[in-house]
Design goal:
single chain; alpha/beta; Immunoglobulin-like; 2 domains; 4-stranded mixed β-sheet; 2 helices; elongated; binds copper (II) ion
Length: 164
């Protein structure tokens, strides 16, 4: 009876770990991080379409101070020196125009789509989010499948252990 209780405990632990991992993977797959490079006095890509909950990281590659500053006051990176970066998670769908305060002709736009809609082809026709999703999914799925296999093997070992 003692051995059986221990086995049940191990099973429960393993299952809990599996569930946590699956939930974590789903969350990772849902929330992506996108990069905007500030280079040669321009934001690249100038227009970026993301999903609510995604994070955008601006990185300044110029030897000159730039900013990523919302035209409506929604956000402001402050001064970014060379190789400095600024990250922001967008939770509210909408279109966010921004510019560089020292160089107002440098402009950019973040389009945040609702998280619930399964991303139909965006009105702007931006291929960037699709490419990002395509590159992220296989890695996460492979990771998930790998852990399920390891977990399954662990379960099989525990279950098949001879009873005393
Ligand atoms: Cu600038």
């Amino acid at each position: 009876m003692q051995a059986s209780t221990a086995r049940r405990g191990a099973l429960a632990l393993l299952l809990a770990a599996l569930i946590l991992f699956v939930l974590g993977s789903i969350e990772m797959a849902r929330a992506a991080t996108h990069a905007v490079e500030i280079s040669d006095f321009a934001f690249s890509p100038a227009t970026l379409t993301i999903t609510a909950g995604d994070t955008v990281t601006w990185t300044n590659s110029d030897p000159v101070v730039h900013t990523a500053t919302s035209t409506t006051g929604a956000f402001d990176s402050g001064d970014l020196a060379e190789s400095e970066s600024f990250s922001l998670t967008f939770t509210t769908p909408g279109t966010y125009d921004y510019l560089c305060t020292p160089h107002p002709t440098m402009t950019g736009q973040i389009v945040v789509q609702p998280a619930t809609t399964a991303a139909p082809s965006p009105a702007g026709g931006g291929p960037i989010p699709d490419v990002a999703m395509a590159s992220e999914w296989p890695a996460n799925l492979a990771l998930l499948l790998g852990l399920l296999l390891v977990g399954g093997a662990g379960l099989a070992v525990i279950v098949s252990r001879p009873r005393e």
